[in-house]
Specification:
Elements lengths: L6 E5 L14 H12 L5 E2 L5 E7 L8 E7 L7 H10 L7 E7 L7 E5 L7 H10 L5 E6 L9 H5 L5 H24 L1 H8 L3
Parallel strand pairs: 1-4, 1-5, 5-7
Antiparallel strand pairs: 2-3, 3-4, 6-7
Helix pairs in contact: 1-5, 2-3, 5-6
């Protein structure tokens, strides 16, 4: 019996301690939580510039396989590791999930979709170019618009505010739930659950 293709879950962020708490790194937070939940540890992959953890969502041979990815390139080059790993693990585009911050959604809200534009997000732009398709799943974590006249680029490269941090753990938990829901039950069902709030 041929094994089903795994799901490639790419948390988008920038490597390095100076970026660790940035809004732009929320994809890393969610990937880390998924690794924690499935009791796996990230390690450097030999075929891609990325930290990778292989997991199963649930128990038994039929439990979906997850390849959790944190690219070690900067955000604007995230696509290279994503494409290399999708080839290595033979993952079709519809089973690739990019998890990322989104300026056009209020803080903490989630939006799930396949395809569409990149909305100025350099990580998505790089993934679309490297994968040569837009038809992958996006789990978009709202970070809201910058206050006043702050440059959006500076805003996403700054840390969450004290007020935001009070809710962050709960919201990251919910985003990880949404990723699991896509894997287990498909995008449409996950959208119904997570677009209501």
């Amino acid at each position: 019996m041929e094994q089903a293709a795994p799901w490639l879950i790419v948390g988008l962020g920038n490597p390095g301690t100076q970026y660790a708490g940035n809004r732009h790194n929320v994809g890393f937070f969610i990937a880390d939580l998924l690794a924690e939940r499935t009791r796996v540890k990230f390690g450097r992959h030999r075929k891609a510039v990325a930290d990778v953890a292989e997991a199963r969502l649930g128990v038994g041979v039929d439990a979906p396989r997850l390849i959790l990815v944190k690219p070690l390139t900067f955000m604007n080059l995230s696509g290279g590791p994503a494409a290399a790993l999708s080839q290595f693990y033979k993952v079709p585009a519809e089973q690739i999930i990019a998890v990322h911050d989104e300026l056009d959604i209020p803080y903490g809200q989630l939006r799930l979709k396949v395809g569409g534009g990149e909305g100025g997000h350099n990580g998505l732009r790089s993934m679309t170019k490297s994968l040569a398709t837009k038809e992958y799943v996006r789990v978009r974590f709202g970070v809201g618009r910058p206050p006043g006249r702050q440059d959006p680029a500076d805003f996403v490269l700054s840390d969450f505010s004290t007020a935001e941090r009070k809710e962050l753990e709960f919201l990251v938990d919910r985003a990880a739930d949404a990723v699991e829901a896509v894997v287990k039950g498909g995008l449409a069902a996950a959208q119904q659950t997570y677009h209501t709030a």
